[in-house]
Amino acid sequence: GSATSARAQAAAFDFAPIGIATDYEIHVPAGYQWKTLVRYGDPLFAEADGAYNDEPGLSIAMSDKVFGENTDGMETFEVDGRQVIVVNSEYANPKINLPAASAGTPANADEVMMLKNIQGVTVMEVSGTQDGVSVVKDSPLNRRITHETQMTMDGPAAGSDLVKTNADATGMAPKGTMNNCGSGKTLWGTYLTCEENFNGYFGTTAEKEPNAGEKRYGIGGSSRYAYEVYDARFDISKEPNEPHRHGWVTEIDPADPTSAPVKHTALGRFKHENAEMVQAADGRIVVYMGDDERGEFIYRYVSNGTWAEGQPTDGLLSDGTLYVARFNDDQTGEWLPLTPETTGMSAAEVLVFARMAGSKVGATTMDRPEWIAANPLNAEVYCALTNNKNRGVKPNAGGDDTAVNGPNPRETNNYGQIVRWMPSGDDHGSDDFAWDLYVMAGNPTVYDNAYAGSSNVTEGNMFNSPDGMAFDSKGMLWIQTDGDDSNEGEFAGQGNNQMLVGNPETGEIARFLTAPNGAEVTGLCWSLDRKTAFVGIQHPGGSWPDGAGKPRSAIIAVWREDGATVG
Ligand code: FEO
Ligand code: CA
Ligand code: CA
Ligand code: CA
């Protein structure tokens, strides 16, 4: 992890940093342009032309043939010479989607079906460049994957009693992927979608005291969309195991629109943010993953088998070991294996209740782990710890202490930080690492203590709540925020949510883009020629992007006027 020739070559910022914004627009540096690529409700198929209208909203019949709502993680693929983007739709905002008379709660089974359809995953071909870039309607690769799509499961928990339901006595055939947050890309060219706040989709129509597993995962509270009223699959008084079929990393093959997505239980069940795949020195597959909840953990999966280009991929995401991170205060750390031997739990329990397994081995409680990004030029890995209002105040749901610790050094933490670890021997297969803090976000115009942030935070680049992250091909770290955009009080001078670029070597951070007020910036991928960056704008406010009517989440394309690459 020390300075290398690759690092010495790390590019200086090739843009002039921009100031904050508080408006309902997108801003990018001078010499860059942007346009909307696709909005919630835009047709993926010609039959859905005109399916979305500001009033009365989206056609229910066409709701699985349009781009989903609240765009999140995304990745670019090349399939038979075509450029394909696979992208998550994390959640629905029923106050926007449903008829006004429903007041934000579905009034019938059809409205529930629409909410199921506008979430999940979209596969879409994208062609053209710069201001000509667009979605290819009716591409044979276009596909919507929803809360109803038939899937399969593999790994040690698949087929176990914990995942069997009335509809699926085999425990091998779950339906739907939910609350798809961050993403990942396998080395063999498939997409990983990460199921985050799945707990919010389950409710109960009968009195039911939550058990330990339900408590740890927040299941049994009120559901977000009243699914359980119209569909017994989501009623935990009737189907207590259905929630065990969600909270996984799910693999989708963008090259085969008829393929069943696969839920990989070997990677553990928790509120997955993203899945960053790299390779150990000996060729084993390594996946880093965060669990986005106050006081939860960071995980690593390591396959038993090895892989090289052109070899079969069978078993690489179903046969391996899940580890959880311990960060010591002396800036060392280690990966603790989660196995029947270390936890006293069965192999299936370790995975279905990974959080409880992590507590048993003494994992380090973190400030809401969001995206993890691995530097392609060096063996170092970054995780956004977005914020934590409970740090030092409340234990996590498993009762673990959340007092301040090495990488989470501040009590009430409204700004967040980015931790980075360097595996021993520059090998992602090593069980030991060293760590430091790449940045502590803060506000040096309000505070002169730890809440001012680290020395690489200035009045000119400050932000709060780092969330999305991705490295570009030049080894620069792109950072997206999902925080307080009030521009008031301890957030004064930070403006709307934003996207910044960080230099891993120098620590310098510069603001590249500002989002419309109300939005978070989440999801980043590049065109195959690297001349266009695709950026997700989730839950915008105002009337963005159209300037009139309801706001619509959208993906934008950003490019340089001189046609040079963007990352
Ligand atoms: Fe869906 Fe943790 O963000
Ligand atoms: Ca996020
Ligand atoms: Ca967030
Ligand atoms: Ca979000």
Automatic annotation (TrEMBL):
InterPro entries: PhoX, TAT_signal. PROSITE patterns: TAT (PS51318). Coiled coil: none annotated. Residues 393-412 are annotated as: Disordered. It comes from the Bacteria. This is Transcriptional initiation protein Tat.
